[in-house]
């Protein structure tokens, strides 16, 4: 009875605080990623190339960084969603895209490392913020030719690191037949390159019929096609987000024309929890096992350890929650982690060992202090007894003289 009540209370508290959900949007420049973010949130959250005055040095610069925006959304039942959206640098404009790729993969890994570190800490930080990305929307060119080499290269790096949801951007540029063919080619490319993406998992034996039906339907839609817009039009007294062309008008929420509404619903309503669970139970768990299995973490962690508290500024440092950053800075600086970067597992063990040692030393010091105080006390008592004895002996003498 009590547990039911407290569970209900906890749930209410969560609902009041809001459900935290994080989406990252990845893809080549100009595919409509930023426009999609605004369409998804129903408001202007990020600048797009149609809303920022181009070209300025500033806007060109901006596209090289990750940008995180948090929006508070509320569903029909009043449940709040704190949606964090990460707009990533567009790539494909230059010959070497490795730096853009690294920024993206490092960010994802860094969020897992933060959890690993937090889990290994002797004292937990009550204000720790879980910033793991629950879904990566991967935008694909509506070319009708499947994936490009560039996409395959990055998707391979992202594979297994997050719930990848492949999305064909600007799908208004494809006819129905072209879209069907493009979806087919993309699926083949994903399979051929063994790229792991979120495939709406279900279990024929254990899941209910509704889940099986929904998930197999959603699976049949992958990759989703979307149309985005930054503009809202008033049509017959109704506000509609859409695109106006010389030849006509498209309501981006028209499910006959794109999968936008289905994608929005699955992200923000039906599969929000599944995506979070899959991130924690499957993807993070695998990352954690690999990290702790002694093989030593790859270079990215070495870089991260360098960047913490160092003058080298890492691109994702600005996204750390301030409370965590402070604690990290302190603990890293006081430990020998910097000398031990090649094997992070050992580094973490070392951190725990150091904390334990510090605690032990503290206990020993307290014990020693206590013993000393006790001895001092005994000494004082002895002195006092001596004085008393002396007084007793001397007392009558003084009286008589
Ligand atoms: N035709 C079409 N154009 C779009 C769509 N979404 C965005 N755009 C336009 O494509 C250009 C690039 O969009 P933007 O969102 O800045 O792309 P990003 O570089 O991927 O962030 C802008 O002019 C948008 O207005 C879409 O679904 N269809
Ligand atoms: Mg953009």
Write the layout of secondary structure elements.
Blueprint: H1 2-17, E1 19-27, H2 33-41, H3 57-62, E2 67-74, E3 80-87, H4 98-120, E4 135-140, H5 149-158, E5 164-168, H6 176-192, H7 209-221, E6 224-225, E7 232-235, E8 238-245, E9 248-251, H8 260-270, H9 272-292, H10 299-307, H11 322-334, H12 344-400
The protein binds guanosine-5'-diphosphate and magnesium ion (MG).
Guanosine-5'-diphosphate binds at residues 29-35, 48-50, 90, 170, 172-173, 227-228.
Summarize the helix and strand pattern as letters: HEHHEEHEHEHHEEEEHHHHH
Bound molecules: guanosine-5'-diphosphate, magnesium ion
Main sheet overview:
6 strands, mixed
Binned strand content: 5-15%
Enumerate how many helices there are, as a single number: 12
The CATH C-level name is Alpha Beta
Sequence stretches where pLDDT stays below 50 over 5 or more residues = 53-62, 302-342
Question: Biggest sheet: strands side by side, in what order?
Answer: 2-3-1-4-5-6
How many domain regions?
Answer: 1
What's the name of the CATH homologous superfamily?
P-loop containing nucleotide triphosphate hydrolases
Rg value: 30 Å
Mean pLDDT over the full residue set:
80
What's the shape? elongated
Domain Septin-type G: 17-294
Main location: other
Biased composition (Polar residues): 314-324, 332-344
Family: Belongs to the TRAFAC class TrmE-Era-EngA-EngB-Septin-like GTPase superfamily. Septin GTPase family.
